[in-house]
## 1
Amino acid sequence: MTSPDLPEGILRDLLASPDRAATPGQPPICSLNGEEDPHELAAWSPWIRERLQLSRRGVDHGEWLILTEDAVPLGPQPPIEALWEQHWFEARPIPIRGWAPTVPIEDCMAWHGVLRRPKGLRAFLSERSGALGQTFAPGSNMHLADPHRDLERIRIGSDHDLWVKLGRLSAHDQDHSLRVRHSFGKEIVDDASRDIEAHRLVAEMAEILWPIAARFPKQDEWGERLVRWIEQPVLRTQHIAYFNAPEGGALWHHDAFDEPLEGGQRGVLYVQLAGRTAWLACSIDALCKRMQEFLEYLAEGELPWVLAESLPGAGALDGLIKLSERFPRMRRELGRPGGGAFGPLLGRGEFSALCADAGHAYLLEPGDALLMPNHGLERTVMHSVFCADPHVTLGLSMALREDRPAPVPEIRRHVPGARRSRRGPRRRV
Ligand SMILES: [Fe+2]
């Protein structure tokens, strides 16, 4: 259903398409391919908030058209509680506008400036040593697991195996993005640990280093919903601060672990604190459908340069089409690091445009949050992130954990060699 005032044409048909995902309260976003009728576009000007050019690590992801919320009135919707519950249990992203306090952009830039310098993390922690006290005093430097992206990892305190790590998001020379992880134990092996006491200490440490995190609402309507859906009080932990800079962001990935649902990591909450980020986010099933559509276009001879550049080998497209015939296999493949065999297509700007047109694009402004439910590897939110400003931005993500998890099921604990690991990329790339 569209307003009768809206201009007729391709754009209106696309925005009103019944199979386009649409979320109440969100500005509609679609892509522009440069071939739009200028008269049609001009007629939309009362509803156009912004045109946003996206680029990540030298790859052009096209231009997005950000419209006003009233540009495309949604058809009949279920009551809002039912809608959010549906999003939660179907592992669809839940955008929450204006949920959190914000950080002045000057602070974001100053912190990024400190962290970018040699031994930047050491300096950042030293500036906060008074607040960290003896319990969380910075200690020795630790081993770096990823020599290409990790910059510093510093032990925190002496009793609990806590650490803070500074890393780059990519080795691209134009991408000055940084991230600061807060966790404990062995990297990768303990990422999904259910040691709730250690998780509480990580949360305490992170809220000292990022005091704004202690001011995020806890007992509000979203806090109540999470308790209802997870059936437990919820602990926010394993914070990651993201300084997404121009040309930065994250490739498509999920944040789920290969673990039993109960007692595990139940979702991730990302909060935009300064500047803006652009997101593509949808359930892993929706991403499968979008990829199937993309493969159909390619098979019909559309976008021939995509095939030539990304799938040059004979039979490469047929191989992917075969792989996409079975949803379970396709889900597994898309969830692998870098999207597995689908990686060359997932990272294309043309695929980003298709996903935006399907209604999976979000623009997060300071104070906005994005809730990403996890119900295991087969029911999780896939997401891809871009910097949406010409300067560095800041966001903070937190893992949502059951505050009183049941013990790990015996069957998992005693299977020889069984370890809670992920088939997908390391959590929150
Ligand atoms: Fe993530």
## 2
Amino acid sequence: MYPRIARFRTADDLRAHCRTISAPIPLDDTILSAAEGSPLAAPITIGGRRVGNRWCIHPMEGWDASADGQPTDTLLRRWQRFGESGAKLIWGGEAVAVLAEGRANPNQLLAGACGREGFARLLETVQTAHRERHGTADDLLVALQLTHSGRFSKPTSAGRQPRIAYHHPLLDARHGVDPHDQACVLTDDDVERLIDAYVSAARDAAAVGFEMVDLKACHGYLVHEFLSARRRPGRFGGDFGGRTRLLRTLVERVRAECPGLMIGVRLSLFDTVPWHKVGDHGEPFPFPVAIPYDCGFGVDEQHPLRADLAEPIALLELLRDLGVVSVNLSAGSPYTVPHIQRPAAFPPSDGYPPPEDPLVGVWRQIEAAARAKAAVPGLVMVGSGYTYLQEYVAHAAQAVVRAGWIDIVGLGRMVLSYPELPADALAGTTLARTSICRTFSDCTTAPRHGLRSGCYPLDDFYKQLEPEASRVKALKAAAGSHRGP
Ligand SMILES: Cc1cc2nc3c(=O)[nH]c(=O)nc-3n(C[C@H](O)[C@H](O)[C@H](O)COP(=O)(O)O)c2cc1C
Ligand code: SF4
């Protein structure tokens, strides 16, 4: 067990611990309010648009759209809370599938079905909540995240129906893909149709007033998988130009056909080989058989436990030159390497105990993002993976933004348990310690079992949501990981 964050009395205590584990996360001594000159209160311009502060809300799905892909009340509650948070950049809200076959679960928002009316409800909900709580939404920028879940598609309750860019020597076995099945590999014609679906969804988003779309290229989903498709023949695989063609074409087509709509990209900046639970601990899949490891993006082919940012940085330059206004930098995948993607004290039910102090995972993302920012300074960048810092999230966010390591700090899980944290930090209000996310991972465990996602331990709404709340407790008890506040 690694030391709990709540145990550190001061930022200095935490800083000293971080030094001992070679994770020198910069931390301010205190949280500064806007009136005290917090760097997080400074506006920033994205694509010519003024954005009122440096807090962002990351996209987070709740597995709670209707079966036909429309927003529901619980889904809109989440968007409302995102709006109330005080963050001035809402990056995507949550992943919206552009095709039914690409839904990650049978209750994911679905572009065509959701249509302009559904999109308008999402936007209105977040803008109205923000305006009511914070006076104006004029400096609030809201993007919609568009996706196809690829290898992780599960469009019906019948289970996974993977659609892949290429056969992966380690992931096929892990996720039940027959390595000889060619029917699940998208053809180049399928890819062309997919591009049309993205453009159509982007057009609908623009029509109802979204100012930006995120062309999601992270977390092992389809567009991300194409970035590592060295083994794929044809136009959309092979060399760097081929592997990036899908993302580049998406950007070009959306720009051409949705004039005025800003484009962002959420990118897994680096990755590693998949990990799994062995006995009572986590370890990487045996990968020496796969060296040189040619199935990663941002991975050192000879030492695939290490990142190699050369290609991701080249891609960021390309995206900037194509007119992408901002990128949201994440890492890895929640299915294959949860400890890299969302550092946590307690693993989700399909994960493994943390193989390192989760602060190392936080630092890995901060440091990689800082290197990307230094290499491609002209692109507005959002950082991820900060929630594990808990009461020190604002201390770190202030320090990294002031240092210019990142432009904007995004929050994921923290906002499920404590949506007002950005507003409280900027107002100089003492943080509500009992609302701070302690990274129990219930919001990941629940959907792994087909349940709606939410903060079951800390959000009263989900504490009382039956039968889900009891089911989550039972799942944790069965896994021997019952933890709660
Ligand atoms: C319940 C849940 C749902 C998520 N859904 C999405 C999503 O739809 N799109 C996305 O890009 N990331 C998604 N993520 C990842 C988060 O945006 C974020 O990158 C991750 O939680 C790490 O940030 P944090 O440490 O602030 O939580 C999700 C995370 C969680 C916990
Ligand atoms: S369930 Fe709540 S406390 Fe646990 S990780 Fe998710 S948001 Fe944090």
## 3
Amino acid sequence: MGRLEELRQRFKSEPLGIHFGATLGHFEAGHAVVSVNVKDEFLIVDGIVQGGITTAIADFAGVYAAMSKLETGHTPAMNINIYFLRPIKTGETITAVADVINESRRTILTRVDVFNQDRENKAYATILFAKPKA
Ligand SMILES: CC(C)(COP(=O)(O)OP(=O)(O)OC[C@H]1O[C@@H](n2cnc3c(N)ncnc32)[C@H](O)[C@@H]1OP(=O)(O)O)[C@@H](O)C(=O)NCCC(=O)NCCS
């Protein structure tokens, strides 16, 4: 089994991903797309998606893009910077599109854009991952 297929199988067993109903769409080395239909349990009392949920979905896309650049292992997140540009609401489908933008000896840096079904840009993140220990 190749690395991408191995990671696709891994994604299907992610407990939080299963809880969210997240799906891994287009996936290739250095690039991952993760989508989620917003559930009411993701909302704060104002009827918009809680920012940590958006961050978690961005993180899923980022970490799969990062892991796809390595032959083996998991890349734990070291730092996340995220901007919540527009509120996300119930009934929307949100898609996180992640790309690896730099790889150093010890880290992998990703950029993640979060859109809704109308391609409105809802959030923007940069996420730094650590490479696994050899
Ligand atoms: C924080 C925020 C209000 C700042 O907005 P701003 O910098 O002053 O810019 P604007 O007022 O031009 O709004 C930016 C966008 O958010 C939308 N927006 C702002 N406040 C909104 C509100 N209370 N309800 C719905 N949409 C809102 C605007 O319509 C605009 O979208 P558009 O360009 O598609 O029309 C806006 O960026 C935002 O709502 N971000 C999402 C916050 C969020 O969901 N955080 C996580 C949960 S607390």
